[in-house]
Amino acid sequence: MSKQSLIKRILMTVFILIVGVFIYIYFSAFLPVLLALLTAIVFEPFVKWLQQKLKAEKRLLPVIIVFSTFIIICGASLYIILTKVASSIYEWSINIPEYAVEIQQFTNNLIVRFNQFVEEIPQGHLIIIELEKQSDALINTVTQITTQLINSLGIWLQSIPNMLFVTLVYLITFFLISLDLPKLVTIFYNLFKTETSDKLRFVSQQMNKVFLGYWKAQFVLSIGVFLITYISLLFISPRAALIMSIIIWVVDIIPLYVGPALILVPWGILAAIIGDMNTGIQLIVLAVILLILRRAIEPKVLGDSIGLNALPTVLTMYFGFVFFGVMGLILGPFVYIAIRSAKDSGLFDFALKKTQEKT
């Protein structure tokens, strides 16, 4: 290898490292674009399938159909969730006077019983003084917590315009990338020599198989979650069993790595606040059971679908979570598959290349 070629490789490596560090530091700024690219890659098989079925030369119509379907499903799920939450809060607000009367009656009875108890024991006034001190401390604590909650709510409300803007950027970027994805892929491959480009195409083909296997595994797991949720909700909340099971199924199939808990836990908390404590506890217990079952079964199902044993799948998910959080938990197996595919394609086979050049 010549000195000029060595310097070129060193500069390229340094440049890649600098770009990697920059993206890692400002990852939140690149997140909408990266998610849009990932979403476009995930839905690319559906676009190609529609393009074949519609016999369309251009990608515009298939992309519009896939994009519109994605928007409709996400919008409908969000609408159903928000209306369910709003109706629950409305029902709770209507019953507030009744709850207030019940709490007041309970408090009055408790005070009467406590005064009777204090009168019967010696040094009862000291107990009352200590309780007054503790009650003052409790009131201060509750005031601080309430202030923090109000501040957090205010910050969250202020961030809504920013969230809407980021969501809009994500959707527009997703549509445009999906529209020009084949061109972008071709431009990317043309950046490399023919030999390297062929190896990268091999890695890309392997990753496409992995993506399909991943979504197959997610679909199989989500079907199991749907059946368990629907059967359980028939006993917990029969009226909302079907619609809530469908919402939970849609949320579960999306790789948020929170799954059913994202719906069941807030629903359980709202039910408990409204006054239906049994339903609230049952919903939270169901969320915990589904979370444990899914995380226990997922490594095996996911490993079989993407061509990994259960142990490497668990390890890549664990180390991905340790270093990169929830996104690393999802992307860990894909990174491992990409590295293994690159090795199988000979992309890292520098020693063999040197030997061939000498020969």
From TrEMBL:
Subcellular localization: Membrane
One GO BP: transmembrane transport
Keyword Membrane assigned: yes
Membrane topology: Multi-pass membrane protein
Keyword list, A-Z: Membrane, Transmembrane, Transmembrane helix
Residues that span the membrane, as ranges: 7-27, 62-82, 163-192, 213-236, 242-267, 279-297, 317-339
Top-level division of the source organism's lineage: Bacteria
GO CC, alphabetical: membrane
NCBIfam families: spore_ytvI
Protein family: Belongs to the autoinducer-2 exporter (AI-2E) (TC 2.A.86) family.
Record PANTHER family: TRANSMEMBRANE PROTEIN, TRANSPORT PROTEIN YTVI-RELATED
Stated name of the protein: Sporulation integral membrane protein YtvI
